[in-house]
Design goal:
Elements lengths: L2 E8 L2 H16 L3 E5 L10 H33 L17 H6 L14 H39 L25 E9 L3 H7 L13 E5 L3 E9 L3 H10 L3 E3 L5 H56 L5 E8 L5 H11 L5 H7 E7 L2 E4 L7 E6 L5
Antiparallel strand pairs: 1-7, 1-10, 2-7, 3-5, 3-6, 4-5, 8-9
């Protein structure tokens, strides 16, 4: 599973024994893999400041999670046809996300623990805000380019009735520069090819004999040229429609066709040039944002543990990785039972003895007598 539970309990002898008991039960029942989660000793400050930080960190946690999700999605969108390689581009400090979380160490150089907590949180908030600002500007530029390119590419897709014809026709297909003659393009159903060949010269007066040529086909029909005098265009269109032949409104403009081709070439070139730098930026800053997010989780555990368990600071944080989705409820029950002494009044109202684990009374409800936070990496899948 790509889900982790980050919990903490007081660090006195009774609770250290409870943690050992938890490890024994979860290992024996194959419920989770547990590791210690190291959190440095921060400057506590005042109770009021901790209460304020608790609220601020909650919002920052949500913001960071949303940001890394957006960045992961941006990597998916940028890589397009290489989506199978996305996971290898979503790393933290060069390692996969699960490894980073399970081996987490506080970055003292980037976020000095000796600074007041308010300063550490402010540094994290500013870092994430800057990444979000840069993400918006960089992806906006790339997405505009991508959209323009997709719009041009869409023109060359579809059937002969809707798609652009500029990449199909050539100068040689048309009579150009004539005051009297014009070449039209007509879509003929495949079942009517023979009829077209027999009748096109007689659909109107002044049609040039043997002037038709098949220049393109799709599943439904073919695109034929026909040359006639300009003054009979409307008459020819009417007669063609009566015979279920469709005249496409297209007049060869060499400058316009050249402009379209140059625009497509320019957009392809610009996209290729932006692709590498953008992907590299996303990889680097996804890593930075993810690392910041896990540091925020560590800060939340510290602040909530001090608020719940009091001073002096003495608690042990543990990271649990549930083995299976189906085992999470049972794991929750084990935790609630092991740590029920942390809140005897609340625990007594919800615990029962119906689950058969020797020496344990297990809760069947969502109750947290300990500090608990969830790290869900499935949001990046």
């Amino acid at each position: 599973m790509s889900e982790f539970w980050l919990i903490s309990a007081p660090g006195d002898q009774e609770n250290l024994q409870a943690l050992e008991r938890m490890n024994t039960v979860t290992a024996k029942s194959n419920l989770s893999y547990n590791t210690k989660f190291s959190i440095p000793d921060f400057k506590v400050g005042t109770l009021d400041s901790l209460v304020g930080l608790s609220d601020e960190l909650g919002k920052l946690d949500t913001f960071a999670e949303s940001l890394i999700k957006k960045m992961a999605q941006s990597v998916v969108e940028v890589m397009e046809d290489a989506k199978g390689k996305v996971p290898e581009n979503l790393l933290a400090n060069g390692v996969d996300l699960t490894s980073f979380v399970t081996r987490f160490e506080w970055d003292m150089a980037k976020y000095p623990a000796k600074q007041p907590l308010v300063s550490v949180v402010d540094t994290l908030a500013k870092q994430l805000a800057q990444i979000e600002t840069d993400l918006k500007s960089r992806t906006a530029s790339y997405n505009t380019l991508k959209t323009n390119l997709e719009n041009l590419e869409k023109k060359s897709m579809g059937n002969l009735f809707t798609r652009t014809l500029s990449d199909i026709v050539s100068k040689e297909d048309f009579v150009l520069g004539s005051e009297y003659l014009v070449t039209l393009l007509v879509i003929v159903p495949k079942s009517s090819y023979a009829q077209w060949q027999k009748t096109y010269e007689s659909l109107s007066d002044m049609v040039v004999p043997r002037s038709t040529k098949l220049i393109a086909e799709d599943n439904e029909g073919g695109l034929f040229t026909v040359t006639l005098f300009r003054k009979v265009i409307e008459d020819f269109k009417t007669k063609a429609k009566e015979n279920k032949f469709t005249v496409r409104e297209f007049y060869y403009d060499e400058k316009e066709i050249k402009r379209e081709r140059e625009e497509m070439s320019r957009l392809l070139s610009d996209k290729k040039q932006q692709y590498g730098p953008l992907l590299r930026w996303l990889k680097v800053n996804f890593s930075e944002a993810f690392i910041a997010w896990i540091h925020i989780k560590a800060l939340r555990v510290f602040v909530e543990s001090v608020l719940r368990y009091g001073l002096p600071v003495n608690f042990q944080a543990v990271l649990l990785q549930p083995h299976k989705k189906s085992s999470t409820r049972r794991l929750r029950e084990v935790l609630n039972s092991v740590f029920r002494h942390l809140d005897q009044v609340a625990a007594a109202s919800i615990l029962d003895a119906s689950v058969e684990i020797p020496g344990l009374q297990l809760s069947t409800q969502d109750y947290f007598p300990y500090v608990y936070f969830r790290i869900d990496l499935s949001l990046l899948d």
